[in-house]
Every structure is written in structure tokens, then in C-alpha cells.
Amino acid sequence: MKIGLFFGSFNPIHVGHLIIGNTMAETTDLDEVWYVVSPQNPFKKNQSLLHEFDRFDMVTAAIANNPKFRASDIEFSLPKPSYTVDTLTYISDKYPQHSFVLIIGEDNLDQFTNWKNHEQILHHYSLYVYPRPDSSNSFLREHKNVRLVAAPLLEISATYIRNLVKQEKSIRYLVSKEVEELILSRKYYSNY
Question: What residues are paired with 4 via a beta bridge?
């Protein structure tokens, strides 16, 4: 199978993440999209994160009804911070029967040369890139392993959602009903 790996903090997972995943699953040659919950992004060292298992629970709840989606906690057992190249190597060794593609936003493509061993990633893996606001035209757009995928341009921010929760305002329609129920019942982000 050809699997798209969609890495993220998912703090929380929101409808923007789901729309991007669905677009990738339905409009490209991917068989599945795996939402890889990252315990710690090396570029966001000081970010206040909900515990990784709580974020994994939200991802699992959000994608439960889509057979083309899968939640992955594979980075939980790897050294932190999580570097994409290390996870890709590990996951490719663990699942040699699959081929993997990296799903990233255009804003990440702009910063891709700052990633650990980015040349190795580009040499061995394809990047499926979705549009993001305020992205520049990275020279990597022309790379043979970079595929630009037409997807809705969404400006939904997890920070915005967390702030709404803290202010006791509705997050309806920004997250799935299942995620909203988890956030409210477990009081996630109330003291953010």
C-alpha cells in the first residue's frame, strides 16, 4: 500500500486536518493516510502541549469513521525531539511492505531545508504538499519528488481553538463532535 504520513502535534486535531487528510486520500494515489502524533516538534520546543496520549485519543476519535485513516503513535517510543527523517527510517523498516509519502503544508516546504537530513528525505520519499496561507514559492516546488496537491486553503488554528476553550466559547464546527466531547468532558485546554 501507498501511505501518506501526516505528522503533527494535533493539539487538538481539527477539521482542517481532516479535510487535508481526506483530500489526500481521495484525490491522490494514496491508499491510506496515517496521522502521526508527534510528542515534540523540534521547531516548537517551548510549545505547551497536551499529553501525547490525550492528543492521540483525540486523533483516534476524530478519524474513527474513515477506513482510509489511521492514527499512529509510532513516535512515542522514539527519541525526543522527533525528527522526521528518523521516524521515516524507522517506519519504513517496520513496514517494508508499504511505501510512504510525507504530507506537509506549503509553509513547511518553505522551511524544509532546515529539517534534519532533508536531502535524505527528498531522495527517498515523495512530498505531497498542500497549500497554506502566507507561503512563498519555494525552489523545492520544482523538485521531482515534490507534488503540489490542490486542496482547500484553510486558516484554522489549533491555538485559536485552545483559546476559545479557555474562554469557554464554542468550538463547534472547528473540531469533530467526538473531539469536542473529549475536550469538554476531560477539560482539555481549560487552564491553557
Answer: 33, 101
Whole-model pTM: value is 0.94
Asked if residue 55 lies in contact with residue 92, where contact means CB atoms within 8 angstroms, the answer is no
Angle, to 10 degrees, between the axis of helix 52-63 and the axis of helix 15-27? 50
Of 73, 60, 65, nearest to 12 by C-alpha is 60
CATH 3.40.50.620 is the classification of domain 2-155: yes
CA distance linking residue 50 with residue 59, whole number of Å: 13
Q: Where are the domains of the chain?
A: 2-155
Side-chain half-sphere CA neighbours of 23 within 13 A = 21
Question: Along the 192 residues of the chain, how does pLDDT read in single tens digits?
Answer: 999 999 999 999 999 999 999 999 999 999 999 999 999 766 665 567 899 999 999 999 999 999 999 999 999 999 988 899 999 999 999 999 999 999 999 999 989 999 999 999 999 999 999 998 777 777 888 899 999 999 998 889 999 999 999 999 999 999 999 999 999 999 999 876
